[in-house]
Write a structure and sequence with these properties.
This protein folds into 3 domains: 4-73 and 120-199, Rossmann fold (3-Layer(aba) Sandwich); 82-115, no CATH class; 205-303. The strands form 3 sheets. The protein has a 5-stranded parallel beta sheet with strand order 2-5-8-1-9. It has 304 residues and is of the alpha/beta class. The radius of gyration is 24 Å and the shape is elongated. The chain is built from 15 helices and 9 strands. Strand 6 and strand 7 form a beta hairpin.
């Protein structure tokens, strides 16, 4: 990897910051090592803390194509690697027969050519690209089944895919691999051994404030500080689902859309659905508790 943007930990941090992703020292270091050593990076953490955004920012900062594989239960090779365009193959066979071509070997060689191959994300990722190896984002691997993990382990070993009817595809230069997991289940140890690992935690108050100022227009500094103080207080509570940075940004946008310039209990109560996504959490925060948290947030923002 010769990109100037990845030549040091500071360069990686600046590369991500150029895409409005504020990375701490530990995250910038593990991303740098992943790029330098050519190792996949496994990012675990709660939903909404910015794991997927790391891959997007890296893709933008390096000027590389982003190829995303969204994992889900039942994911198979037809959806993740390749499949044949059976409808087009049948049409080709019918056309060949109509033209008097009855040589099955010739027809078979034709219909099992690359023009009938539908390339899915994993096969796309190992193909040559003019701008260099792409960023391959394997998102929410914990949602996929264990058999898919076994296949992925084989792919990560040598970055080759064999299509029996055609040929073996081999990466000239491996893609930059980012794997994310919300840890709804444990990822197999064999996958973890192939990867560098990092736990992406909720952002600290200064980092979240910096992100909010970069991402949300229409916020004055005091209002942004109030929003962050409110959200940080929520994360200290025993909630069913604590809000991530994605929810903070959504809530800030909602408050701006309501023409708010400071936290007000009425507007907070009306917009909490942008921040909290479970009725049990909304019930707990509504009313007096919301007013208390607004008061705490205002006091903390004023003291900063």
């Amino acid at each position: 990897m010769n990109d100037a943007a990845t030549g040091s930990v500071d360069a990686v941090r600046d590369c991500l910051a150029g895409e409005d992703y504020i990375a701490g020292e530990d995250l910038a270091t593990v991303v740098f090592l992943s790029l330098k050593l050519g190792r996949p990076l496994l990012l675990e953490g709660e939903a909404g803390v910015g794991k997927t955004e790391i891959a997007k920012a890296l893709s933008g900062g390096l000027g590389r194509r982003l190829i995303r594989l969204q994992c889900y239960e039942g994911l198979d090779t037809a959806s993740a690697v390749y499949e044949w365009n059976y409808a087009a193959q049948m049409i080709e066979i019918r056309l060949g027969e109509a033209e008097g071509i009855h040589d099955r070997r010739a027809l078979g060689a034709d219909v099992f050519s690359e023009r009938f191959l539908i390339k899915r994300p994993l096969l796309q990722a190992i193909e040559p690209h003019a701008e260099g190896p792409p960023v391959l984002l394997i998102d929410e691997l914990d949602r996929a089944d264990e058999p898919f993990e076994a296949f992925l382990l084989e792919l990560l070993a040598d970055f080759t895919v064999t299509v029996p009817e055609l040929r073996t595809f081999r990466a000239e230069r491996p893609p930059i691999v980012i794997i994310t997991s919300n840890r709804t289940r444990e990822i197999h140890d064999a996958i973890k051994r192939r990867c560098l690992y990092h736990w992406v935690d909720y952002p600290t108050r200064p980092r979240e404030l910096d992100i909010l100022k970069r991402k949300c227009e229409g916020l004055n500094a005091r209002f942004a500080a109030e929003i962050v103080a409110f959200v940080q207080s929520l994360r200290e509570m025993d909630l069913y689902k604590r809000p991530g940075i994605a929810e903070t940004l959504d809530w800030a946008d909602a408050l701006v859309a309501l023409n708010q310039t400071a936290l007000e209990p009425e507007a907070v109560g009306a917009s909490l659905g942008a921040l909290l996504k479970y009725q049990e959490d909304l019930d707990r925060i509504a009313g007096d508790e919301a007013r208390r948290l607004v008061g705490v947030a205002r006091a903390e923002a004023a003291a900063e």
